[in-house]
Each structure stands twice: as C-alpha cells, then as structure tokens.
Amino acid sequence: MMKIITNATVITVNEQNEVIYNGAVGFDGGKITYVGKTPEDLSAYDEIIDGTNKYLMPGFINTHGHVGMSLLRGFADDLPLKQWLEDKMWPMEGQFTAEHVKWGTAISIIEMIRTGTTTFVDMYDHMETVAQEVEASGMRGVLCRGVIGFCSEEERQQKLQEAASFASRWNGAANGRIHTMMSPHAPYTCSPEYIQQILEKAIELNVPLHIHMSESKAEVEQNVQDYGVRPVAHLENLGVFNHPTLVAHAVHLTDEEIDTLAKYNVKVAHNPISNLKLASGVARVPEMLAKGVCVSLATDSSASNNNLNLFEELKLAAILHKGVSYDPEVVPAEEALRMATRYAADAVFQKDSLGSLEVGKKADMIMLNAAQAHFQPANDPISHVVYAANGYDVTDTIVDGHFLMKDKELITMDEQKAIAEVNRVFALLKQ
Ligand SMILES: [Zn+2]
C-alpha cells in the first residue's frame, strides 16, 4: 500500500537539516520511499493525504522513562530524590500489580501519541504488560526490565532471569517495533557483582545496557565512599562501557568523565525537567555535545516531570543551557531538535532506521497544525517547532506507516476507558 502526504512543510532533520516547502513524504508499508517536493504525478499512490498547512516531521524518541509510574502523577511532589524514592515511590510501587502497570502504561501511551512521541524507552517491572500495550497500541518501544539489587541473592537471580527472558523473548517483536535492553537500575541500587552479571547477560543476548548514572550529587559522593571512585570510573572499571550503553541523567560529570563517555561512545538521556524538579542539578549538555557525546532527550517518569510531553524538554533543553552558561549560542534550536530525533535514534542504537525523514527509514512521523496564530509569521519552521510549539499542536501521529492518531482522533487506544481504569486502580492502592 503506497501512501503519500503532500503539500506539507517537511522538516526532515536529515544531515543537511533540510526543510522542504510544498513537500511530500511517500511511504510503502512501514518504510519511507520518497522525500521531496510534492510530485505532479501522484498516480503511483493508493492513498493521498493532504498535508496543507501542516508541519511534517520525524516523531520524537523519548530515551528514558518508566511509563507505569504515570499512576503516581501528582502523588508526591517537591521532595528530594532519596526521600521521594524511599518514602514515597518504592512503597507505592511495591503494591503495583500488572493491572496497575497496564493502565499506567495505557495513559502514558495515549499522552505520547497525542504529543508526538513515536518511540519510547522504558525501564520498569511487569514489562510483559508494557510490551503487550506497545504491541496493541502500534507504538515503538525500547523496553527493559529494570532490576534493583536490594533483596536476597535468590530474588536477585530470579529478577536477572526474568529480565533476560523478557529481553530475549520480546526483542524484534511486534513487527520489529519492540527492541529490548538489559538494565541494572543504578550503581547505587546494584552491587558491582550484580551489574557484571547483568552485563554478561546483555553481551550474551546481544542487547544494549540501560542504567541511571550520576543523577544527584549525593549519589556521586556515596559511590566514592563505597567504591573509591565516581560512578563513571566505577562503570568503566566494571567493563560496562565496552558494551553499547545508554545512561540516564549524567548530571554530575567532571571534564575527565565527559571525555570517558565520548571515548566509549556512551549514549546519554538528558532529562532536564525531572532533574530540575528533583533539584538534582543541570547536566553539562553543551560540554558533552562539544566533545561529541550523543545526548538525547527524555522525560523520565510522570512522577517526576509530571507529563510525557517531549515538546517541553525540547524547548527547555534549548533555553536552560543558555541561561546557566550565559551563552545564547549554546544548544541552538536545530541542535535541540536533533536531540529529540536523530541523536535519540542513535541513543537507542537505531540510527539507520529512525530519527529523520529519509528514504529507507521507518515511516515514524508526526504532523502539526501550522495554521495557528502562534506559528505566524511562517518564517522559520524549526524555530517555531522548538520555541513556539506545544505537544497538543500535533494532529497526526504515524508509526511504522500506520496512523495512531488522525486529525486528533486516536485510532488504536480507548482514551475514556484508560482514564476510568487508571483512576479505579489508583484508588485501590494503600497510601
Ligand atoms: Zn528514571
């Protein structure tokens, strides 16, 4: 089935960062077959979708989060990370069943489809349920069972087996829309031996590793106390960086640590809103980008954000680093946009198939209504998307060539049911 979207302003995010006016993107099944000016002759296409007054661009890739935690949105705000985790999040999450995670995932996926995210990374428990929701919704996911080592040796081995079994069974599932990873939660929740065991499994299964790292100052100090080195050297010594790895946060880094991440080509998920809300600090993004580190954008969970609308991260990443460095030239709009698309595709080890509108890549794309007052005058689409847009300007979301939202209408998800169910299962938790 050959389809084409015509007459759109196409923001390709290709190598040359091309914007094509009166542009078109053709796709056959899940693959992009044409990107260019709207052709005169459209007879080869089975379906023609009019993109007049629309921005057409690659869907966003959210490179770190825990979608099940949307159930805890607004439950515990304005607390320090350690207290927030230990006193609020973990006791509630301890009560979660697959049903809680199912509905937390469903409202998250709905929110992401509505705000232009087409791929998300998820590290959590009950991942079978998350994978089923990804499969049913038509979304693309990079999923891992995050493991925390605070338990008996027997339980640790059981979690490791569960994570490995999940990673091996679901990798490539849902017509290739699901990829998997292995995930020790963090250096402060997993012993060095446990991290190494998880790494060995990742090597064996040939899947990347995903881990939280250097999120807070206290965590870095604790690591030095416990192991004599900061988290970057700790993970380097354990051999983690010899394997494809995506780290979340990387807020507290020395110059030398940035060099280490660049040397090993470690990918970074930058979560500016979550880091600000938990008062963890501001990651040294301009320095990382200058050294060639792959930095992508992410929301983290709705418990620390409190939404999954990546347009907010896009704007914040572009302005936050200007403010803290007193340099308006750092993280320009087009660089921020690459962090949400091209670089993010690289961060999830799918740069050949995702992250830009180019022939041969997956047809994962979004359209925004450009005929709105806040997008006028229509002079610079990339500036408007980064600085003026919000997630609810998205009208259409397409993954693997399928519409998940068309003219603001959800195709694959039952929003009213998800809203009712998430409130029902939340009410059953003991607070
Ligand atoms: Zn996280």
From TrEMBL:
Enzyme class: hydrolase
Cofactors that this protein relies on: Zn(2+)
Residue ranges annotated for the Amidohydrolase-related domain, each copy included: 55-402
Xref: InterPro entries: Amidohydro-rel, Deaminase_MtaD/DadD, Metal-dep_hydrolase_composite, Metal_Hydrolase, MTA/SAH_deaminase
SUPFAM superfamilies found in the cross-reference section: Composite domain of metallo-dependent hydrolases, Metallo-dependent hydrolases
Gene3D superfamilies: Metal-dependent hydrolases (3.20.20.140), Urease, subunit C, domain 1 (2.30.40.10)
The protein's name in its UniProt record: 5-methylthioadenosine/S-adenosylhomocysteine deaminase
Organism: Brevibacillus laterosporus LMG 15441
Phylogenetic lineage: Bacteria, Bacillati, Bacillota, Bacilli, Bacillales
Gene behind the chain: mtaD
